[in-house]
Amino acid sequence: MFTGTPGKIIIGGITGGIGSALAELAVASGWEVAGYSRSGPSGTKVGGVVHVTTADAKVSSEVEQAINECAEALQGVDAYVHAVGSVFLKPGHQTKDEEWREVMAVNADSAFFAARAMVPLLRAKGGSLVYFSTVAKQIGLANHEAVAAAKGAVEGLVLSMAATYASLNIRCNAIAPGLVETRATRSLLASDMARKVSEKMHPLGRVGTAAEVANVALWLSSDQAAWSQDKHSPWTAVCRQFSPAPRFDCKVGSPVIRSKTCTPCIYNPATSAGEG
Asked: Is residue 2 part of a domain?
């Protein structure tokens, strides 16, 4: 359970797996919580949330309006967590232009829009911005070209913002977890084989939970992490390559692709979902 001083937090993607877990933890810990998502109030299942509004995270004007609306409802804001994103697994040569643009819009564009809207609200007294990347960007995983590139953009944003706004006491951190079990990743764990292979990729022998990631996000948002200002936070549930590295034959289109780190190859060729 979180033990720091509760504050006021806005959660982008509040109705998603990680967003709702964070909202539940924050409310239970005494924080005042507001947020936005595509589904808006109708998708909110966590009690005690001050305000939830509807916004398409890919549209800058809607993000700005939603964040300002949430800040007004909270009468101020101390922290923002961007729990908006998507999972898209497909080889680069098979990824269509519109699929690439969608992945970049959901992950990278939305992160920038939220950052731009939040900075004016935090300039007076500082605060925290928390984003999500992926370990796939760190180590390279087959069929993750689009989402790894998008999350790489998010990390670049975090790096620059951490440097730009440190003098204003605005902290900016990113969390790069391994596979976290949420509604968005349900299809990746649908079969026993898929789950077992995913679990073997993690040193602890299992995938993560939304609640575990939410704990890290809330800590980074709090005064307990007041000296954690960086670029890319080390709070990373690291996947590892198989050792020894098995090989999977996976027919992701034609011809057959063979890869020693090809966990996604036992899944559907393309998987896409949003809001964690």
From this structure: no
Tell me the whole-structure pTM to 2 decimals.
Answer: 0.81
**CA pair distance 145, 136, nearest whole angstrom:** 9
Q: What does the alpha-carbon distance between residue 153 and residue 269 come to, in Å, rounded to a whole number?
A: 23
Cβ atoms of 229 and 172 closer than 8 Å: yes
pLDDT one-digit tens code per residue, 210-242: 888 888 999 999 998 887 766 444 344 333 333
Residue that is written with structure tokens 């299992």 in the block? 206
Reported as a single tens digit per residue, the pLDDT across 164-180 is 999 999 999 999 877 77
CATH number at residue 99: 3.40.50.720
Residue 109: inside a domain: yes
